[in-house]
Amino acid sequence: MHKYLMITLLGLAFISCEKPEPISQKTTEFKIDYEKFVLDNGLEVILHEDHSDPIVAVATMMHVGSNREKPGKTGFAHFFEHMSFNDSENVPVGANRKMIPEWGGSRNGGTWSDGTVYYEVVPKDAFEKILWIDSDRFGYMINTVTEAALEREKQVVKNEKRQRVDNAAYGYTDEIIRKNLYPEGHPYSWTVIGALPDLQAATIDDVKEFYNQYYGASNASLVIAGDIDIEETKKLVEQWFGEIPSGPEVEELQAQPVTLTETKSLYFEDNFAKLPELRMVIPSVEEYHEDVYALQILGQLLSGSKKAPLYNVLVEEKKLAPNVSSYQSSNEIAGEFVFRVRANEGIDLDEVKNAIEEGLARFESNGVNENDLKRIKAELETNLYQGISTVLNKAFQLVQDNEFKGDPGFIVESAKLTNAVTADDVMRVFNKYIKNKNYVMTSVVPKGQLDLAVSEAKEAKVWIEQVRQNVANEEVGQGEEAVYEKTETIHDRSEPDFGELPLFKAPEIWTSSLDNGLTLYGIENNEVPLVQFDITIPGGHLLDPIGKAGVSSLLSDLLMEGTASKTSADLEEAIGLLGASINMYSDKEDFHITGSCLTKNFEATMALVKEIILEPRWDEKEFERLKLALETSLKGREANPNAIGSMVFNKLIYGDNHRFGIPGSGTLESTKNISMSDLKSYYNNLSPREAKFHIAGAITKGQTENVVRILNDWTGYKIAIPYNNLPINSKKGNVYFIDIPDAKQSVIRIGKLALSENDNDANNLSFANEIIGGGSSGRLFQTLRIEKGYTYGAYSGVSQSSEIAPFSVRTSVRANATLKSLEIIKQMLTDYGSSFTDTEVELTKNKVLKSNTRAYESLGAQLSILRNISKYNKPVTYIVDDQDELVSMTLDNYHSIINNYLKEEDMVYLVVGDKKTQFEEVKKLGKPVIELDIYGNIIEGEDASL
């Protein structure tokens, strides 16, 4: 076996048969073990040992979010998070974003109103390296900030705002609510991402002031969780983090809840929205307040089930919307209770408002149903374990509660406080915070449909960027490296060596079968008392009737709406009382029944799965509701430029005559004539004969067999899957353009059909993609985001399916950088083969091999292993086989793969953006440009093959 191989074959052997055994009903006390200590500089450190996988998670929580900003300098905490990932004194330029993925790790950060978190997960051998790079970012980055880095990162953050806010339906709603819910100057009166003019005005002095004020060691918590030795780790933390300056004392913020003296009703015409949306936001209480737990449960009781009053009134009785949500949202110094309804097309939001009020009156009249309270608590118990099922999730929980509550293990107390909530508590907080209270209400309606807004609402004002070409300050580059005097330290801050290469033991895989043909695949994992399972039935979208795409997807929804003996609400309640989840969905090639539960409830959960499969209710009322909800969803999809890009891209590469050229959820045209009889006909395709049952979690093979045998009553025949002819690649070399008026970004999709997962070259093509588009270390990301600042992200990859799947490049770039981005991607694809050297061969090998140490940690990832084995007939040793294949690949192999599958001239280009400013620009690329509508139909140009 090759010396680089990190997976032992022993772990992949089949397990011998064992005697069936009962599932224990005993549940151990919920807790997370940890050790906490404080460095002399004030940094609070929490360590958690978990030797289940050879990986380590590191999370650093800075107690500074947008609530520490000043008016006129909004968005700065988030902007500083971006700046922190650039350079530091003792780490090579650009290494922070590039090296960690190359070590097989992942890294990111996040900022919200109250804090900023930086986190990494790496193979164990890179543990000290991550302490080096993490501590250097924390304590030694400020001297490396240059004007060029500042201006480049401004463009990245502005692109993030364009992508998430300006180019998204309902993107401005948060800004409208904050401005009107909180008084001017309140720390929550502006959004976390801030205003573009504020970002553009940021200076290096601003960056330094912010760093010096808030990035001291005494204003942070550090959590390290995973395969560590506590005593050794303490020494390493002292070495790498102990010399970071303590920083000035940061004044603790006191709670600043708000009270509204009147209800404020505002409307906004949204350029992207296709559906009207109503939100009502009532001031409530801050995080960790004693009433938070009852308010959280109140939110679930009002809208979180089929028996909830808001659901009953808005969805079932008045048919105003496909769903309704209500929830408590708490932050450090204030909180909000939110009602949110995205209504059906054309619905007057006055009706929605009145329906919410009717639902609240019904709740007040009926009070709290004890069974509902019991159900919610059961669901929360399961959620607790799911929330700590990976080392990174544990790190997040520990660091958050330490920094904001002063108790890393507060999750245990939180669970107790939640479980202690009574019906009287819920009614008390309803009366105290919700009943007859003033609120901020937003009516966000599609452009030109002001008649749908709540009567007498006032217009909301937001600042909207205008797209302009050739803006000088938006053209950025790498620039010169900073010149500075390096900070003196006692400890050597040179890059440490890798530790001992981790030996990743792949999970043991067992297999079995039932008499009805259902094949079982399992992995036992006893880290938490949970199981996740998946039943995969071949067919999916491939078996949809011609012209009625969406049948299988609609059936998957309907089967969850009750059984012969249970109404939709009864079934939901039965699942909830177990703290379980059961879901169905249909994808391109398969129909899935999935679920999760505490191990002690697996038998009862599977009894419900059997009932769902074998005793459908065929409820006409629910069918009509689901049809209406689907229509609303499909209409809403038309508001999303990324969704439009994905749908039309598939239509371009697969053509009109292939099932995959149409979304599996269908279109407004394909779903309008779907009937109940179509669903009943498709139901006959749900046969166990070729189906696979996958399970991962705290359960043995024998226990699983003992329970799953109840599915032997499920019978059927082998179903023939229809063959689809693939189109000739007649669109290669063309650029297709879809107009989204006033779009602040252009969505770009570039690609071609490549190969099936069953193809011998599938793994090799995936390996060959790593350098160009595999995450933040890929050339696309490094060039378009890090170097040019054109985008928030850029990636490429190969889809996985039995049918021939596409290779695609995906990004969204600022509108006035559309042509430049297309030119860069075109050149990058053209030169990829010739620029791929032995250096890239070695880099790919190390990156992929090491990433496998953390690739299969979660139960969901382990289910993916089992699905790959069963769907593509892979051997149980396939992970090892794939790595052997990777290790043996030569430079010639890579060149061959790139030349066969990634020729630029074979690619189809698609741009979804603002025609007024970008259509003529795109023509300068030198390729034929054809305009399409949002459904992929030609508007102008010549392309008779479409």
TrEMBL record:
The family database entries (Pfam families) matched by this protein are listed as: Peptidase_M16, Peptidase_M16_C
List the InterPro entries: Metalloenz_LuxS/M16 (IPR011249), MPP/UQCRC_Complex (IPR050361), Pept_M16_N (IPR011765), Peptidase_M16_C (IPR007863)
Q: Which residues form the Peptidase M16 N-terminal domain?
A: 45-167, 527-641
* Positions of the Peptidase M16 C-terminal domain: 202-380, 674-847
- State the family named in the UniProt similarity comment for this chain: Belongs to the peptidase M16 family.
Q: What is this protein called?
A: M16 family metallopeptidase
Give the originating organism. Lacinutrix iliipiscaria
